[in-house]
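Our preliminary data section would be incomplete without showing what the modeling component actually yields. Below, a chain of 382 amino acids is followed by its predicted structure, encoded as tokens that our downstream tools consume directly.
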Amino acid sequence: MRHRIAVVGAGPAGLTFARVLHRHGSPATVLERDTAPHARPQGGTLDLHDALGQRALGKAGLLAEFTRLSRPEGQAMRILDTDGTVLRDWKPRPGERANPEIDRGHLRDLLLGPLHVQWGTTVTEVEPADDGVRVRYADGRTATFDLVIGADGAWSRVRAALSPVTPHYTGVTYLETGIDDIDDRHPELARLIGDGSLAVYGVNRGLVAQRNSGGHVKVYAQFRAPRTWHTDPERHLGLTGWPRVNLADPQAVRALLEALFDGWAPHLLDLLRHGTAFHHRPLHVLPPDHTWTHVPGVTLIGDAAHLMPPLGVGANLAMLEGAELAEALAATDDLDAAVRAFEQTMWERARTFATMTIAGLQRLVSPDPAQAIALFDELQPA
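Predicted structure:
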């Protein structure tokens, strides 16, 4: 019996689910609000862990292609003090592939393969109906499925069919920028960053630079502040004389960051000075114990189910969930029983990772920078 299955969201979770289901000879309808695969930048780079994201790609039959596309040298990690002193300089051993990097855009292309995606399709509501689950689109159309999987991220529209819970602000904000052609235009910064990532931790703030492919580097300024810090930087950040900052003005944001990181080594601040546009990324999470009363025909995976801080676990876990759910559905005609069992497993595992990453964020952006160094040491392989 062929079931009508839809997954909302063509991110790592949704595409992994659809790709594994496709490998088992079952189709899934993929609904994505992006108008095309490359309609917008997909973000930075991901480190896919051998026991999570790589395992999911193995279930999709894509591990060999991932090996060809990924950057094992990107596993390198360098930590500096705010005066520029190198505190840690970890490089992967030859053949080390515990968590090689891949650009999000390259990963989307890899997962898409033969899949058919309904691009430019914005889901506004999902609700149980007599003949299945009804999906409403922004253009007024509706469609009915036997099972709808919400893989639509932090602000999921599918989640409302299962849970009233919404993400809450962690107290940590990222301001993201990027530097293009760093090896040619800024070789001194390229040498500073190395092959992978660079991190600097101060009191309640941090600076992270991460290599992507093609000579592009993502830079993240991290700090603790109220969600509306930009409306009154003097009050919320302690920056004397600073008025409201227009987040759409890169010169104003750059100047504010230079003030916020005043006293750090000049060559570290160059990572901010050479950035172009700045994107405001206040970090939100769902409660670590987020669950819901089972509703036949609807479930969630990835950030829609268990949004957690971006500490290298979320996308990995989301991909494995997509792969495992697809395998479970392909092995049975009883969709509801498969989904019930999957949800129990997902909740227990996600609770562990969410608790760990929320605690990790507290240590990375904290009053005591030594906590960040200690966390890094704990996470590195022996």
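The chain has a mean pLDDT of 96. The chain has 13 helices and 17 strands. Preliminary results of this kind motivate Aim 1 of the renewal.
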